[in-house]
Amino acid sequence: MRQGSRDITSGGTLLVASVTLYLLIPGQVETLEGDTLTPASMPMAITLFIAMLSSVLVFSGLRQRTRDTSSSPLVPDGGGKYLGLTVVVMVSYVGLIPWVGFIPATAAALLALALLFGNRDWKVIFLMVLLAPPGILLFFRYSMLVLLPQGTLFD
């Protein structure tokens, strides 16, 4: 299969899905009349953003239709292993959040993913594990006004 054809197929599928979601959201989310920002505003903005990106992917695929990639596989050798392990890490992460809380679960997931994908610079890993989870927590708590789980293990 040609690279452009894959891009057109995936971009077109995402475009149809995002437009469908955009049209379904107003009927699924209750809003008050007269509000400028409603609970439907963010999902609608996200679906519009996905629609724009998928349109770019479709146009990019149309430009690259002549490029032949039949000799190179879609997933490189060993790539399935990384995908499978990433899924295991993310499922474990989702399972750990209610139990240990957001910060320890995020730190553990970041550490596992950094090691899985070959980052061996311990200074970078240490700073990432130490600074990213509290930074994300503060962003969601004070900018997005969303409380993230604290976990039941330490209560």
Descriptive overview:
The chain folds into two domains: 3-63; 79-143, no CATH class. It has five helices and no strands. The protein has helices at residues 3-28, 41-63, 79-100, 102-116, 122-143. It is flat and about 45 Å long. The chain starts with a helix and ends in a 12-residue tail after the last helix.
Largest β-sheet summary: none
Shape: flat
Number of helices in the DSSP assignment: 5
Write down the secondary-structure element order. HHHHH
Uncertain ranges: none
State the helical fraction.
Answer: 55-70%
What distance lies between the first and last C-alpha atoms, to the nearest angstrom?
A: 54 Å
Strand content: under 5%
Tally the beta strands.
Answer: 0
Tally of domains: 2
The mean pLDDT is 85
Write a compact overview of the structure shown.
By secondary structure, this protein is mainly α. The chain folds into two domains: 3-63; 79-143, no CATH class. It has helices at residues 3-28, 41-63, 79-100, 102-116, 122-143.
